[in-house]
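Hi R.,

Here's the input for the NAP complex you asked about:
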Amino acid sequence: MNTSGNTILITGATSGIGLAFAEHFAHLGNTVIICGRRADRLAEIKDKHPGMVTKECDITNEHQREELHNWVISNYPEVNVLINNAGIQLVTDLTKPVDLDMVRMEMETNFIAPVHLASLFAEHLKTATDPSIINISSGLAFVPIAFMPVYCASKAALHSLTLSLRHQLKDTPVKVFEIAPPSVDTELGHQRREDKTQTHGGIPIQEFLSEAMEALHNDILEAPIGQSKGLRAKGDALFGAMNH
Ligand SMILES: NC(=O)c1ccc[n+]([C@@H]2O[C@H](COP(=O)([O-])OP(=O)(O)OC[C@H]3O[C@@H](n4cnc5c(N)ncnc54)[C@H](OP(=O)(O)O)[C@@H]3O)[C@@H](O)[C@H]2O)c1
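And here is the predicted structure with NAP in place:
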């Protein structure tokens, strides 16, 4: 894809990978529209990058997703890239009755929202210039780490969905990318850390970003990044080792 001159909607760009993509794409001369739930973060980002467009939105709410779609199409009809990035990561103990509200929230954020948003934007994107849908999955889509079973299942579902979406759009100009990050040092899963200011480790975000941008620039439609490559390649063989 061309990495400049686009109008890009990024879900969940108040921190981490979404924010890194937003800042980098803005730097490359794209119009960047970001959304998230935290209004204070959106305001801080707007102060730092006045050219960035911010929109408060909870993507677990289907009406807010529809509103986001209608608002973007009305105000930025030149939008040609959707990045389904927003995600949450929860620990789920399947040996006890699960909290179904949490299971539903994780699936709604990581899977149902990308399905819905891709379908809402697809019709418009078919007629846009150099259009793309970019789904941010995970290396854990390919091999689950068993203490986060719903998270991994949501990402495996997003991986499968991306294959079907790409197939359904194959006779259109819309390119469908999947970027599968490895562990990247962001706020993901911060709710389970005692010190909320601590990140969870993983590779530095700029290292992730430069490999992901190279994949997008070179039209590598399925791009496992860093250690995710090994997970994609070795699949089931690694399940035992990761859960030893
Ligand atoms: N970091 C990693 O190691 C890693 C590895 C593989 C895949 N990923 C994937 O990369 C993506 C970005 O994660 P990250 O690591 O950058 O984590 P992060 O720093 O926690 O960022 C997550 C983003 O998602 C947004 N979000 C969460 N729920 C939302 C909702 N209901 N509505 C709107 N926005 C919502 C958050 O914004 P608000 O809180 O403001 O709503 C935040 O901007 C996720 O899909 C994640 O699964 C990350």
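One thing worth noting: The mean pLDDT is 94.

Cheers,
M.
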